[in-house]
Structures are given as structure tokens and as C-alpha cells.
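User: Can you help me understand a structure? I only have the sequence.
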Amino acid sequence: MTAEEKDMAKIAEQEAALVFDRFDLTTAWELGSLLRSMAIEKGLGVAIDVKLHSMPAFYCAMPGTSADNEGWVRRKRNLVLRFFQSSYGIGRKLAHLQDTVENRWGLSPADYAPHGGSFPIRVEGVGCIGAVTVSGLPQREDHNLVVEAFARMLGKNISSLRLD
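Assistant: Let's start by predicting it. Here is the structure, written out as C-alpha cells:
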């Protein structure tokens, strides 16, 4: 099994496990605030975004970020809201296929980024209602930070879900 295949399998497991029973604006604020606290604790310069489809619910830019991070947030989030899958999972799939968003789906890389850091917000019995996005770290670390926050919020064991 290739590294991409291992990651794709683990990300599929994450997406299946990290599902909320309910999610509203209060939950969005709590998740964004948790990510901010984690960034402060770890000394990370990241932008954090929680969006319920077209409705902004939380945004924070930590020291060390720039206007570029908001662009990365938008592009990664666009991918999640189009395919209802994590941006890193899609990126790993494309790497495995040696393909691009432009070639495979006709999507502009100026609007869609298959890089780690955006993860679908799923609600049991409803489906994908939005996305949580982090930008500022290497893409795998952006992805892992979001997954860790989801696991904490949902009471899941992060050691069994985290990418190696």
C-alpha cells in the first residue's frame, strides 16, 4: 500500500468517525475557540475558519499569519463544500492518481486547493453542513490540527485517528 493509499484510508476513517449529533452557531464558536486555544498553547501562527455553507460562523487570524492565509482558507474550504470530503483527502487522492483539480474536474486552482487543513462538518442524519479550515502550517499539520480539535469536541481517541 502506498503512502497516499494509507492516508486515504485513514482520512476516510476520520471522516466516518468525526460526525456530530448536532451542530449550531454555538458549537461553531466552541470549535473555533478550541482551535484558537490549541494554536495559542502550541505557539502556532494559523488562520482558523468555521463556515456553515455560506454563513461565516468563526474566523480568527493568529499572530504570524498574513492575508495569504485567508486565500488558502477560501480555496481549501471551496473544495470541501463542493465534494463534502477533507481537502487533504482529495489532495492525497489526486497525488495518487497524479492528477490535478483542473485536469480532473475543470476547477481553477485559483478557487480550489487540494491541500490539507479543511474538513467537512457532518451531522448524523443530515450530512455535510459546512467546513472547518486551518491555514498556516505544512498541509499535513493543518489537517492533523483540525482532526485533533474534532476528536476533542466529540470525545474520540485522537491517537487512533491521527495521521502518522
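Now, to help you interpret it: The CA atoms of residues 122 and 128 lie 4 Å apart. Residues 25-42 form the longest helix (18 residues). Let me know which part you'd like to focus on.
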